Protein 1
Amino acid sequence: MKALLLDVGGVVFRSGSEMLALLGEREPTTRSVTARRGPLGPEPDPDWERMLRGEVTERGYWALRAAEIGAVLGRADWSTHEFMVELYEQPGVEIIRPVARRLVADARAGGLRLGVLTNDLAAFHGDGPLGDLSALGDVDVLVDGSVTGILKPDPRSYAAAIDGLGVAPGEIVFVDDMPWNVEGGRAAGLHAVQLDLRDPDAAFTQARSALGLAPLGSAQ
């Protein structure tokens, strides 16, 4: 393997479902809503299930959550971007998964190329502190569907990332948390790993193994 390609939301950044739990702690009036947070909440989340069935898009799902929580907080005109600022741009909150940060550092140290393939970085985070991914350091290619207008799992999105990385598809390890994006990556010839939000570390263990990197905790 010669390259690592990562999704952002849920993979590099902690998932929105995790951030909703923190919002519920910070704003108790939202707890009846934040109890429904994808696979991580104590209550079923029918809108999440609709998204998994393809009845609503991922962006549509987060627009629904923004509207629900905005209504509770008296922000009836809240945009998804404003909602994401409330979720993610809080002082003292670690946004990037430590295992993702370590994977990126070790991949770089091992001479691997690094790419990001996301649908929503600019749409959700804009010009804020998260929008430039500077915490990851330099990346060789950043393909953002909210800039290109081409969203995963459209084959053209993977083709753009592959072209930017400059290696064969079969030499790229790709990590994403949405099943249809993982399927699209496999169809494009990538070694695709699905991240389960209930056990995100497992996906990073798989990715490290596929890249030939030492397991975390082993002698380096």
Protein 2
Amino acid sequence: MKKGFGKRTSNSESLNDIISQVLKAQNLEAPLLDKQAEDAWHKVGGDAFKKFTTKVEARKGVLYLSLSSSVVRNELMMAKSLIIKNLNKELGTDVVKDVVFL
């Protein structure tokens, strides 16, 4: 008879679920999601807007983008809902509720 690890029991949890529970318990989930939202902007915005973005900061579901061009700021304001949609798609969940252009 083989000894060692047996089959998973029904009370086992995935590693992803355990990590999520630990993050929630330590109040680290929101800062992690904010950081992921900041990183997602660089992917969603791409090189076209990267050179005009001077600062990216996310807090409590709001992404704050400091921009060096008022023309770019106006263009992005017009596409705000699409930007939010694409950011959340990149993140795989509805993290970003609003984008503020500074």
Protein 3
Amino acid sequence: MEAIRVQQTVQKSGELTIRNLPVEQGQQVEVLLLYTPSNKPERPHSTARQLLNSELVGLWKDREDIVDSIAYARQLREQAQKRPNVGGVLDDSPGQ
């Protein structure tokens, strides 16, 4: 498969027209659209001191059902990674 790179500015919201491509009628093509979100909200950055002083540190300290917080956090991360369609991405791996 060959690649063609075309960069242009969107003139009408939700529409993009690409012309004069070196492809023939009936030829199979795949289109991958990469863009920079224009209204991406900024995530605030925290310093280590701010994190230590936040309510996140020690969040599970009074939980009697969590014996090993490190193992519990690891389990939560593994479960999150195995969920199908997380963040709009479909997981096509076997066994899912």
Protein 4
Amino acid sequence: MQVVCLQEEAFYALFDKVVEHIESSRKNKPAKWIDGEEAMLILNIKSTSTLQKLRDEGKIRFSQPQKRIILYDRDSLHEYIEKHVRETF
């Protein structure tokens, strides 16, 4: 086993760099689970009832971790859009 000794300033500088690296990688990757408002923006719909209809018909994936919280799978929304693409002539 190796023991590495660092001065206090060096330790905190290293720690700050690690935190900065983690935050920058988190910003580049969008969240997998999103709320209804963002889901409606992706699908370009205005009505929550349309979103509920897609959910009830099983066309998009969702999770309900609590009674009033419904989250939507971003990948499922993009798959739904791709499934309905019409090719040009």
